[in-house]
TrEMBL record:
The chain crosses the membrane at residues 35-56. The keyword Glycoprotein applies. Residues 508-547 are annotated as: Disordered. Coiled coil: none annotated. The keyword Mitochondrion does not apply. Gene3D superfamilies: Acid-sensing ion channels like domains, YojJ-like. This is Protein CBR-ASIC-2. One of its GO terms (cellular component) is membrane. PROSITE patterns: ASC (PS01206). Keywords: Glycoprotein, Ion channel, Ion transport, Membrane, Sodium, Sodium channel, Sodium transport, Transmembrane, Transmembrane helix, Transport. Its main location: membrane. It comes from Caenorhabditis briggsae.
Amino acid sequence: MRGGGFVQIFKDFSNWSTVAVVPHVANANNKISRIFWIVIFVFVLGMFAYELYILIAKFFSYPATVNTEILFEKQIFPVVTVCNMNPYKYTVVKSNTAFQGVNSLMTAYSNAVDGTYGTDKWGLYEEQTEEYDLDARAADALVLEANLISDTNKAPALYTYSDLVQDCSFAGIPCAESDFKKFIDPVYGACYSFNEDASLNYSVSREGIQFGLKLMLTVTQTKTSGTTDFLPTTRLAGARVAVNSRGNEPGLDSNGIDAGVGYESAVSVTLTQHVRAKRPYGKCVSREPDTSDYYKNFTYTLETCFNGCKQRDTVAKCNCANPRLKLGPADTACQPIKADLDCLQGLKGNQTNSDPNIDLLVECSCNPPCDESTYTPTVSLAQFPSTSYYVATSSSAGVGSCYSSNSNFANKAACQKWYNNNGMILQVFLETLSYELYTETAGYTVSNVINDLGGQAGLWLGLSVISVVEMTGLLLVMGAFCVSGGAIKIAPDDDDIANDHRIKDVEDVKNEIDHMDKRHAEMDDSDGDDVAPESPKKGSDEGKKDN
């Protein structure tokens, strides 16, 4: 009973369905035709199922697209950080008792270079045959020794703003110390960041060297008296420069630029902005995933995340934190002793080993930031000062201009030579006002799936929204038929047919038509009977005429 009911439901559905092939199967005249259309239906149904699988797999792979825009508009000037590569004045280190440990280290290092020293607490003696390792260990030891000194006690040996910056101008207009923010770096000592304060409004609407920042810096490798003021461990004479967005950690060690004395360093920068998609279409994050976020006071970047990961690795393996990186509130800094220095040196890794160092990409759960602005620098150099330039400066705190009346030098040539060994020009400017904006968005959304699904359904099955409604109705009827146990009528019975007024009306019309046909037939017959008797008379008359 129920099987017959299903057959009846399918027959009715096939008569009014818009689904391709179904009416052909139901209304086929013979078995061969029906089998042919069934094979066609199975084929197109299989192709549609395959395409549907591809669409679903593509959607759940969450592809992303990157839209590139080149914009041209007024830009906020980047933050420019400058530090003396020599972190502390050697003359102060030798005379200030707060720097006793640093001074002892400098003495041991100088003796190590000369080969006239014995054992020491830093382990320099073991590195006497490896010059590069000796320098690296001494540099690490200096950071650990200096970390034991408070910032207040460090102040006399640090370079002040007037020591470092002789002249400052932005787009040709003089700038002041208040435009810089000072901070103490564990490696480079006192550093000064231009335009870091959010209250400043330094921006540019024109590109080029004339509309950027110009600094005359003096690192004072030697004083005007000829006294050396650089630490023996300082390898380079110049400034460490970083260019970054406001709120970012400068990244002097990883992203800094070396600007040497005796040159004008022209740094042209271009801006690039990234707006990345969040999960599931991307992997960007806004903060470091680990709860011990060492750089929570800075804008999140991959560099801050990697540094935090390296610090956690250092604490886990050495039971102390590296002062080169940010320390957590519960961290204890490594001490300037051989054991801690050995551990820190070991974490750098030997590049000949199979496992040279921590694998930041594998061992750190770091993902790129969702919003990021980066500046790409291009540096060009020119000699400073030229042989004929007397060096003019408005600063009253430095050594002054190379006029003949300058009492710091015997003559103009001596002044120029001093600037050549101790001074430099730094110019930072925007190469262009155009910048690239990369926006990452969802590459395949629900709307795309629906569009592609409709196309595939129409191609293979001829389906439309109406077809879907029809099949939904079919499923509802079949479900109701199953739930009711076949009690639902799917076709009219004899009583329904007999009592249907539409059928009665049709029967009445049929009877009336039959009656009318019968009347017409009778009338035709009666007309025939009236005409028949006249025929013989006509023929008789014709016979008479013949006679």
